[in-house]
Amino acid sequence: MLSSMVKEHQVKQTTRKELQESKRKEAVAAASDLTQALVDHLNVGVAQAYLNQKRLDAEAKQLHSSAINFSKQTHQWLTLVETFSSALKELGDVENWAKTIEGDVRTITIALDSVYKDSQESQTQ
């Protein structure tokens, strides 16, 4: 009787160990599946963040390039406006010079006319 009880106990223990081992394997598999699911879920977010960062970098480079081109164009416009302003100043100077010369020529003409008239009057007398 004692030996049958021992055998029965050993059989139950073996059955329990097998059941416990199968449950342990199931738990390990479930934990592994859970870990994999969590990693996959996080990887999706990381991948999306990486793609967004890559897109932002490309747009930042394009913006930088556009800003440099805009700066160059602005510099060209400023140079053109300065040249135009200088040309206008020169035209103003030329116009002033021409008016001065015209005034001098009129003064000389009036003086010559006056001298000519005086000489004509003195010859007729």
TrEMBL record:
Signal peptide from the UniProt entry: none
GO CC entries: BLOC-1 complex
Origin: domain of life: Eukaryota
Classification via Pfam families: GCN5L1 (PF06320)
Any one of the GO BP annotations: endosomal transport
UniProt region (Disordered), positions on chain: 1-24
Entry coiled-coil feature ranges: none
PANTHER family per the UniProt record, alphabetical: BIOGENESIS OF LYSOSOME-RELATED ORGANELLES COMPLEX 1 SUBUNIT 1, BLOC-1 COMPLEX SUBUNIT 1
Family to which the UniProt record says this protein belongs: Belongs to the BLOC1S1 family.
Protein name per UniProt: Biogenesis of lysosome-related organelles complex 1 subunit 1
Organism annotation: Ignelater luminosus (Cucubano)
Species classification: Eukaryota, Metazoa, Ecdysozoa, Arthropoda, Hexapoda
